[in-house]
Design brief:
single chain; alpha/beta; 11 helices
């Protein structure tokens, strides 16, 4: 089973947080700080990331979503709210399509129904298997967070870099292959889970129009662009994101 951590009220509804490629569950520390007073927050590490075991790749999005379902079953959680960033958001889309009975609400951030240049993900996987995750480090500044954030919060930027360096090459590569094969563009219309879609205004990895296409495809979804944020908007603008997520979950209660 993948590694997970639980925080917050035991009697509250469960909010599951799905991380981005090359990070671990501590990328959501600010969401725990901001939301665990109202929700039972469950975070997990992707395969081969953080403290999760390294499974031989390639992985599929069905595999990664199945890992989440296994954690829910282990915890005895029938239904949950789900928030995911990037590949975590793709996992959320897969859950909404194939396990809709497990979700109360869905929030997806900096994600896509099909990610840019699918063949390039197999190429990236090959590079990382050969050279390790350090090969990706130079490209993360300006992609994960804005240069302004890195300048003003250097310790946080360094913490993100350390997550990447600690990620196993096989775990990273296997997730790359899942991303490259992911395409649910024709299926988004089947998602009935109340959905919030967030884009970082300065995200070069999943640009605003790519993220907006997810919202356009999901009936009744809400779409917002978070200013002054790149790909890891939950890290860069946590107060803004936490407020939006709390509002989305509360709207479901009062709907």
């Amino acid at each position: 089973m993948i590694h997970y951590a639980v925080a917050g009220r035991e009697d509250a509804e469960v909010l599951v947080l799905g991380p981005s490629l090359g990070t671990d569950l501590t990328m959501f520390d600010a969401q725990v700080d901001g939301l665990a007073d109202r929700y039972r927050v469950v975070r997990f590490d992707l395969r081969g990331h953080g403290r999760s075991p390294v499974e031989p790749g390639p992985y599929s999005m069905a595999d990664l979503a199945g890992d989440v379902v296994e954690v829910l079953d282990h915890l005895g959680v029938r239904r949950c709210h789900y928030l995911g960033v990037s590949i975590g958001g793709a996992i959320g889309q897969w859950l909404a399509l194939h396990h809709p009975d497990r979700l109360i609400t869905l929030t997806v951030c900096a994600t896509a129904a099909q990610f840019c240049d699918p063949p390039s993900w197999a190429e990236r996987a090959a590079v990382v298997r050969a050279e390790g995750t350090a090969a990706m480090l130079p490209s993360r500044l300006g992609t994960w967070v804005t240069h302004s954030f890195a300048c003003h919060r250097p310790q946080e930027a360094e913490r993100l870099a350390e997550m990447l360096l600690a990620t196993s090459a096989e775990g990273y590569a296997g997730c790359c292959e899942a991303i490259g094969a992911f395409d649910v563009r024709a299926e988004l219309g089947r998602i009935t889970t109340p959905t919030l879609v967030l884009a970082g205004a300065e995200d070069p990895a999943t640009p605003v129009d790519m993220v907006r296409a997810v919202a356009d495809g999901i009936p009744g979804s809400l779409f917002t662009v978070v200013p002054d944020a790149a790909h890891l908007l939950t890290t860069e603008r946590p107060e803004v994101v936490n407020a939006m997520v709390a509002g989305h979950l509360a709207r479901r209660v009062h709907a």
